[in-house]
Amino acid sequence: MLERFGLNGPIAGTDEAGRGCLAGPVTAASIILPKDFENEVLTDSKQLSKQKRAMLRPILEKAALSFSVKHVFQDQIDQINILNASILAMHKALDDLTLSPEIILVDGNRFKPYKTLKHKCIIKGDGKYLSIAAASILAKTYRDEYMMSLHKEYPMYHWSKNKGYPTKEHREAIRKHGLTPYHRKTFKQLPEQLTLDI
């Protein structure tokens, strides 16, 4: 059972998806849930099936007092690095909340202060707190949806299955077809990348 955070005011959970991918954006979500929100299925998105994530998303969106999902794309990731891009995506998602939280709960151990709001970094927070778990579901489902749309443009990379992660199949496609405009150029796409003219 996931915990609540012991405050009376609104709590925003934030999390990202796609940090370890070779292609596509890093996507972050922020969400504020009602204090009395409960759901027995909700947990870290990585622990749930695709079907359960799809089932939870509309429930979370309907219940949320406010939520937002934002992408930071590969060109900016290459410019500012993936850690800064992940934090930027979270800040962008927080920008669009219609309610100001008392505190931001962040999955992981790295974050930059957002405005004057308090924040708390929680390692594996998506498996501990409702609001972070909810943010992880939204970030994951929105990013997966986006990668499915890119798959139609570049089906040979199998993004409908790997979502841009460095699977053997994805790396083989890079070896065969080269990089697309959606690939992150600063990431080590192949073990022998130093010998590739990219």
UniProtKB/TrEMBL annotation:
This is Ribonuclease HII. NCBIfam families: PRK00015.1-3 (NF000595). InterPro entries: RNase_HII (IPR022898), RNase_HII/HIII (IPR001352), RNase_HII/HIII_dom (IPR024567), RNaseH-like_sf (IPR012337), RNaseH_sf (IPR036397). The keyword Methyltransferase does not apply. One of its GO terms (biological process) is mismatch repair. GO terms for cellular component: cytoplasm; ribonuclease H2 complex. Residues 9-198 form the RNase H type-2 domain. Its main location: cytoplasm. SUPFAM superfamilies: Ribonuclease H-like. Pfam families: RNase_HII (PF01351). GO terms for molecular function: manganese ion binding; RNA binding; RNA-DNA hybrid ribonuclease activity. It is an enzyme of class 3 (hydrolase). Endonuclease that specifically degrades the RNA of RNA-DNA hybrids. Manganese or magnesium. Binds 1 divalent metal ion per monomer in the absence of substrate. May bind a second metal ion after substrate binding. It comes from the Bacteria. It is found in: Cytoplasm. Keywords: Cytoplasm, Endonuclease, Hydrolase, Manganese, Metal-binding, Nuclease. Coiled coil: none annotated. It catalyses: Endonucleolytic cleavage to 5'-phosphomonoester. Its cofactor is Mn(2+); Mg(2+). Its EC number is 3.1.26.4. Gene3D superfamilies: Ribonuclease H-like superfamily/Ribonuclease H.
